[in-house]
Design brief:
Blueprint (H helix, E strand, L loop, with lengths): L1 E3 L9 E7 L6 E2 L4 E7 L2 E6 L2 E8 L6 E3 L3 E9 L15 E2 L4 H5 L28 H10 L17 H8 L42 H16 L2 E9 L1 H16 L7 H14 L5 E4 L4 E4 L5 E3 L1 E3 L2 E3 L2 E2 L7 H16 L13 E5 L18 E5 L3 E9 L2 E17 L5 H16 L9
Length: 437
């Protein structure tokens, strides 16, 4: 019988098979996870709708699978709970993708390698072991049996550094010292014992898959379609710094970490109400600009697997503390790989924040099919000239830069500049955010 890829969510027609959780011959129980499928930027665990034996796998890790395509075949009875053609649905366990290293489950480079250095294994020949020709030659010179070496490279590939660890060469000096071993190793020429730098492979190839592959696809899609241009403006953030400090103290009493992001999001909404073209998307197939009458801000979050952009929803109707709590929840779940498909739905504009790392400004890539992405950068102390009582004086202020990338097919340069002017007004005078509707 066949297990076909079911519907994974509204508008989702395909996904990448990032990890098999079963192999041919495994006895699988009903509702056991058989594989992980990545759609857009979330990974869905596919449960088995049967109890039986896996007879074949119809795809390999990294392949793109379409809804309705056969995933695997099995012997056994279908479960009454889930059929092979039904949707995974909201009850399926979803999370952010596992790292490439975890998917390959390669042995740790720091693991101790077990080797045989007796005369019977001194040839170093092991044809079924993955290793470069140069590594095999070195193994012969060193009298190491490759079959006894734990490889730390991709797919268990034996690297030159593994041979060094196996023989203890790293502890050998450049003089006449020898490893404390017997047999062929004790007869090794000093020239066979080389420095660790000489054992490092020149290149290591890692398959582009999972989140990194999705990031590449999204960035290429954006650059192929949107006509990017970036506008940069500076801002006096001194009043924002003061307001955030007060809010941070208030939030701490409720266990909520308040960053600058909630205030920036509120300022974005206030400016977007004046320039709604930036809160839109371009439906190329229909030839229509789609204005969004709601404000769902995608937030770029860096994780160990790469960049992801879940959505903070209904920003216009939430308080600063509520937004801070939502942001904290998304960040925690993104880094714990617990984001769901719903976390990525219905974004209207994106905010990316590199301020914690540094840099003055950047030229961010639009989160297509949105038409705008705002970049927030570091806040730093800076001497500036201010007029007071008819005189100019130098004062120290908290300063920052904002950069916004726009799709020039939809947003004119002048409109983008006017939006930034309005946005900066709210950043420099954040109390205006709490006046009026």
């Amino acid at each position: 019988m066949d297990l076909k890829l079911p519907e994974l969510g509204e508008g989702v027609h395909e996904g990448e098979l990032v990890k098999w959780r079963v192999k041919v011959g495994d006895l699988v129980k009903d509702d056991q996870v058989v594989c992980e499928i990545m759609t857009d930027k979330a990974t869905v665990e596919l449960p088995a709708p049967f109890s039986g034996k896996v007879t074949s796998l119809s795809a390999k890790e990294g392949d793109t699978i379409h809804v309705g395509q056969i995933v695997l075949t099995y012997e056994g009875g279908a479960s009454s709970a889930v059929s092979s053609g039904t949707s995974v649905g909201a009850s399926a366990s979803s999370h952010a993708p596992a790292s490439i290293a975890a998917a390959h489950a390669a042995p740790s480079p720091t693991a101790t390698a077990a080797v045989s250095l007796g005369a019977g294994s001194s040839s170093g020949v092991a044809t079924d072991v993955a290793a470069a020709p140069s590594t095999r030659r070195l193994a012969r010179e060193m009298g190491v049996d490759l079959a006894r070496v734990t490889g730390s490279g991709p797919h268990g590939r034996v690297m030159k550094a593994d041979l060094e660890r196996a023989t203890g060469a790293g502890a050998v000096s450049a003089g006449n010292s020898r490893p404390a071993t017997s047999g062929a190793a004790s007869a090794m020429s000093p020239m066979a014992v080389k420095s660790s730098a000489q054992f490092i492979e020149r290149e290591t190839r890692v398959p582009m898959k999972g989140l990194r592959k999705k990031i590449a696809e999204k960035m290429r899609l954006s650059k192929d379609h949107a006509a990017h241009f970036t506008y940069v403006e500076e801002a006096d953030a001194s009043e924002l710094v003061k307001l955030r400090a007060a809010a941070k103290e208030l939030g701490a009493k409720s266990g909520v970490k308040v960053t600058y992001l909630p205030f920036i999001m509120k300022a974005m909404v206030a400016a977007l109400r004046q320039y709604p073209i930036l809160n839109s998307s371009f439906d190329e197939a229909a030839g229509e600009i789609v204005y969004k009458n709601y404000f769902n801000i995608s937030l770029s979050i860096q994780t160990e697997d790469g960049l992801t952009a879940p959505v903070v929803k209904s920003v216009e109707s939430k308080s600063v503390l509520e937004l801070a709590k939502d942001i904290q929840d998304l960040v925690d779940r993104a880094r714990a790989k617990k984001l769901t498909l719903d976390d990525f739905q219905d974004g209207t504009i994106t905010l990316t924040n590199a301020g914690s790392i540094g840099g003055l400004f950047a030229t961010p890539v639009i989160n297509y099919p949105e038409v705008a992405i705002l970049g927030f950068n570091k806040i730093f102390r800076k001497p500036v000239v201010r007029e007071s009582g008819g005189r100019e004086e130098i004062v120290i202020r908290d300063w920052t830069y904002f950069s916004i990338s726009l799709d020039h097919r939809v947003v004119d340069g002048a409109v983008g500049a006017e939006f930034m002017k309005a946005f900066i007004q709210y950043i420099e005078n954040p109390t205006l955010l709490f006046i009026g509707g």
